Amino acid sequence: MNILDKIVATKKQEVAAQKKVVTIEKLEKYPGFARKCNSLKENLLKDDASGIIAEFKQKSPSKGEINFSVKVEDVTTAYNAAGASCLSVLTDFEYFGGTLANLAKAREANPDIPILRKDFIIDTYQIVEAKAFGADVILLIAACLSKEKALELAQKAKALGLEVLMEIHNAEELEIVNDFVDVVGVNNRNLKTFEVNVETSVELSKLIPAKFVKISESGLAGASEIKYLKEHGFKGFLIGETFMKTDDPGAACKKLIEELRD
């Protein structure tokens, strides 16, 4: 059992428990549920877009504790001011230290920028939850979904006005991508070994249909890598640890975006 299998097993238990605590009917009455979503896809395609999807991540299975000394509202506001195209907020607690409360705080502090709910979505309940707590985009990870389940989840997201980011790790997982997906993300991290290789994005970029906006995830540290990936058609770059491991994640984000614009 690899780390993804463990996370999904935990997530199934968490979702089953949460359904008993807060019903879908209750979630649909949350103020966030009625709001119109901001578009990640549109933001990434703007001529002046930085393409940076700046993430609030406090710990991870591969790195352990990253940064618990900062507040989500402060960091995400700074990311937004720095020129990020989108915010990403972890909501998995067990493995990443994230919470839905963090998502709600980020939303309240940043009403006009797209926010990705970064979690392991395996049930339509989580999509309703995402909308209720203020997300604009959900992440679907091809490695932990069947083709049928991915289609069901993507359709539900689109029905609620959310956009869908589908994450793949290899060519085989492209089979899971469907027409309800807005953005395809290539994760450069091998889930079995945790090794990171940016060339994974380059190789898969040749296989991703042109109708999808492409983003690269994991292991991105500097402007040179991002400029290299832009040459291969990537419009978005999800970066978390590089920013979060510093004392001032917002300043680190600002510095990178300024380097990209040089």
TrEMBL record:
Pathway: Amino-acid biosynthesis; L-tryptophan biosynthesis; L-tryptophan from chorismate: step 4/5. Keywords: Amino-acid biosynthesis, Aromatic amino acid biosynthesis, Decarboxylase, Lyase, Tryptophan biosynthesis. InterPro entries: Aldolase_TIM, Indole-3-glycerol_P_synth, Indole-3-glycerol_P_synth_dom, Indole-3-GlycerolPSynthase_CS, RibuloseP-bd_barrel. This is Indole-3-glycerol phosphate synthase. PROSITE patterns: IGPS. Residues 4-256 form the Indole-3-glycerol phosphate synthase domain. Belongs to the TrpC family. It is an enzyme of class 4 (lyase). It catalyses: 1-(2-carboxyphenylamino)-1-deoxy-D-ribulose 5-phosphate + H(+) = (1S,2R)-1-C-(indol-3-yl)glycerol 3-phosphate + CO2 + H2O. Gene3D superfamilies: Aldolase class I (3.20.20.70). Its EC number is 4.1.1.48. GO terms for biological process: L-tryptophan biosynthetic process. One of its GO terms (molecular function) is indole-3-glycerol-phosphate synthase activity.
